[in-house]
Design a protein that fits this description.
Structural class: mainly alpha
Number of strands: 2
Order of helices and strands: HEHEHH
Radius of gyration: 17 Å
Number of domains: 1
Number of helices: 4
Strand order of the largest sheet: 1-2
Strand content: under 5%
Distance between the termini: 44 Å
Oligomer: single chain
Shape: flat
C-alpha cells in the first residue's frame, strides 16, 4: 500500500514539476521550543496561487482528457467572472 502511494506521488510530481514553483521547507526555533519538537514548515505561500491547492488542481486537470480540460477551464473562468 505504501509503495503504491509513493508511486502515485512520483507520477503526480512528474506531471506537475514543470509548472509549480519549488517551495522551501523551513524551521522555526520559536515553534520548536513551544511544542518541544522539531517542526518543518512547507512554504506553499510561495506557490503561484499562494496555496497548496494549486498542485492538486493542476494534477487533476492534467489527468483529464483534452476536451474535458477545455470545458472545466471554461466553467472555472465563467465562475470567476461572475464574482468580479
Amino acid at each position: 500500500m505504501v509503495v503504491k502511494m509513493f508511486k502515485e506521488v512520483e507520477l503526480t510530481y512528474q506531471r506537475i514539476q514543470k509548472v509549480v514553483n519549488h517551495t522551501p521547507v523551513m524551521t522555526s526555533t520559536i515553534l520548536n521550543k513551544k511544542v518541544n519538537a522539531e517542526c518543518f514548515i512547507k512554504c506553499e505561500n510561495f506557490q503561484k496561487t499562494g496555496s497548496f491547492k494549486f498542485r492538486g488542481a493542476l494534477n487533476t486537470l492534467s489527468l483529464l482528457p483534452s476536451e474535458n480540460k477545455k470545458r472545466v477551464l471554461s466553467l472555472i473562468l465563467q465562475e470567476i467572472m461572475l464574482k468580479l
